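Moderator note: this is an archived Q&A kept for reference. The question asked for a predicted structure of one protein chain; the sequence and the answer are reproduced below.
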Amino acid sequence: MSKKKFTYKDAGVDIEAGEQMVDSIKDVVKETHSDAVLSNIGGFGGFFRPDLGSYDDPVFVSSVDGVGTKLIVAFKTGRYDTVGQDLVNHCVNDIAVCGADPLFFLDYFSTGKLEQDVGYNVVSGFAKACKENSVALIGGETAEMPDIYSEGEFDLAGTIVGMVDREKVIEGKKIEKGNLLLGFPSTGIHTNGYSLARKVLFSEYEVSDHVDELGTTVGEAMLAIHKSYLPIIKATRDIDGVNGYSHVTGGGIMGNTERVVPDGLSIDVDWKGWERPAIFELIQELGNVPEDDMRATFNLGIGLIAIVDPENADEVKKAAADIDEEIIEIGKIT
């Protein structure tokens, strides 16, 4: 009796599909490359040759992240071109608030069964955001892992690497009593708080339901792209009196701003100082979510905070106006 033959494809991993995926994305990835990139995707490593001429004491800055359960919203809607943008922008913001210029990005895309169109749309999202942030997408990993993910599911992670001159690192050490909190609006939920948002919103709505308060469908509102704050940070970081930035992600305004405020100082937020986007009001009302939970879970409409000496606040506001960036005074350091 002959034994049954098993192949890797029988086990759920299609090597040929992976190779076709790499071939399909080469052109969109190459569009993110500058002369600093010395290799295209497909090799064992990505090569990047930074221009160090403008740095006296260059320091690499890196960060890694994912987009959490926002992916479940993408699965429900069948839209996959936004979550890659979310990931790049989130990672860019995390190092930009340290004063760094992002240089290159690497992605990790893992799924149970590789669907070519899904993978292409996700990577196209990476490439779009990389181009918008002047970041090179120099490599990544696409993994098929049957039995780990259910049909139609996948996960994403990304790593950003940037550079800053050591003397220009922004750590919040100069923050002092009386500094103002200048907030920059978010585009919505961004990439944090989706476990609570999904539990509340999907108990009442389907992703395709149009909600008048939102002005769109539930799915579209929840997939609003995490905003990149790199332009406003670059426009304001060299202004005297800009002493720190807070990227408002998981933990909310207080949890993230406390990370850069020195010990002995407190954060006084005027929680009624701006109008919250409708999606947060809807979540709180539908789910009867306590205010403390809202503040600790969501950005509530403020995605970035600059902590600024009041004497320099007008200069920061002018810089924001010059690039059509809305700015709101939301509190102070006490």
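Archived answer notes: The first helix runs from residue 15 to 30.
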